[in-house]
Amino acid sequence: MPANTLLYLWPQRTFYLGELDGAVHLQLAASVLLFALDAPLLARCGSHSLRASSLLLPVGEKVVIEGGGRIALCYLDVFGHDLQHLSPRLQWQRGPVRGALAEQDAALAWLHEQSQAASPVTLDELAAWLEQLINPQQQSATVRGDPRIARVVELIQEDVACNRQIAELAAAVGLNVSRLTQLFRQQVGIPVRRYRQWHRLFVTSCLVAGGASLTDAALQAGFSDSAHFCHTFRSLAGMNPSQILLRPGRLFLQADLRPLAALPDQGKECR
């Protein structure tokens, strides 16, 4: 029986469980916790390489993942809290890439079960499992975020289909453009434009989970058409969306749609 494919989405994290076909080139718009269910994967980042069954890849890096078989990956929170909780618990490091999570064996056993289960976990159950895996002691993150950057992220999310100019975003939080650009990259790890693209991918996937067609979802999220969405998906995620959404076997696509309730209708003017 073909293995399950899971794509679960929340505002804080995104989780994928499925097949990896050969090498994948990632331009990381968010940090990633990655598990290899069948055989260790090789991660290459610049001149550094690391082979492991669990990998922690930081935002902003260009990483090539080589291997195959089933993988599970979780895109982590935008402000680096998850990364801070996880980093000390990985045993190896090569450059910016870390490998071998302390809880790797138990996590892999659980992920194997979900890959073959007749009824995989619910959205809430998986959210709870990830929270326990990432922050088992429920510690508060010591990463101190700038509230102005948090507000810029909110503004982008509130009008995802709008291409607000960086000058407008900067003015809204009392910064000049150069300072916003600097602070945003320091806090989030990627430029404003890249984050907007990443959030549009998230919104498109959530809308598809809610029943929209890919074309309608892409337009509502601010892409010019589905081809624009697919190009952006490939550039950031390293694979075609069809490799996830159209793979043989059973696809379980779930999303927390509550944050999208106030999403402007397609065609509505940007504020």
Helix-strand makeup class:
alpha+beta
In the CATH hierarchy, the third-tier topology of the largest domain is known as: Jelly Rolls
How many domains, in number, for the residues?
Answer: 2
End-to-end separation? 50 Å
CATH architecture heading of the largest domain: Sandwich
Give the helix tally.
10
Query: Any idea of the CATH class of the largest domain?
Result: Mainly Beta
GO biological process, one term: positive regulation of metabolic process
GO molecular function: DNA-binding transcription factor activity; sequence-specific DNA binding
Function: Regulatory protein of the TOL plasmid xyl operons. XylS activates the xylXYZLTEGFJQKIH operon required for the degradation of toluene, m-xylene and p-xylene.
Protein name: AraC family transcriptional regulator
Descriptive overview:
The chain has about 270 residues and is an alpha+beta fold. The chain folds into 2 domains: about 5-135, Jelly Rolls, CATH 2.60.120.10; about 145-235, Arc Repressor Mutant, subunit A, CATH 1.10.10. Helix content is about 40%, strand content about 25%. The chain is built from 10 helices and 12 strands. The strands form 2 sheets. It has an 8-stranded mixed sheet, with helices on both faces. Helix 7 runs antiparallel to helix 8 and helix 7 crosses helix 9. The mean pLDDT is about 90.
